[in-house]
Amino acid sequence: MGILANHVPSIEQLKPGLIEVIEEAGGSKQFFLSGGFATVQPNSLLSINAVEGFPLEDFSADAVRNQINEAQKIAGGSGSEQDIAEAKIELEVLESLQAALK
Hints:
Blueprint lengths: L9 E5 L2 E6 L5 E6 L2 E5 L5 E5 L2 E3 L5 H15 L5 H21 L1
Antiparallel strand pairs: 1-4, 2-3, 3-6, 4-5
Helix pairs in contact: 1-2
C-alpha cells in the first residue's frame, strides 16, 4: 500500500509484517509490526496504530528461526488448548518476521 498526494481517506487493517517509511529527505526506515491499523486522512496524512513495532535491524534471522522451532514444538504437542493456540499465533507472527528478514 502506498500513500500519495490526494489519497482517498481510508482505514486498513494491518497483519503482522514489514512497513517501510520513506522520508521526505529521501531516506527510509523499515519496521516490523505485530498488526494494527493504518488510517489515511483527507490531507494524505498517514497514521499507523500498532500494538508493537520494532526496527527491522533489531532482529536476528537465527534467533527468529530458533523461536519458530520452539513454537512449532508447542503447537504440535499435547499441551493445553491455550498453549497450542498461543503457539499458533506466535508462529504466524514469527513466519511473517522471517519473510521480512529475507
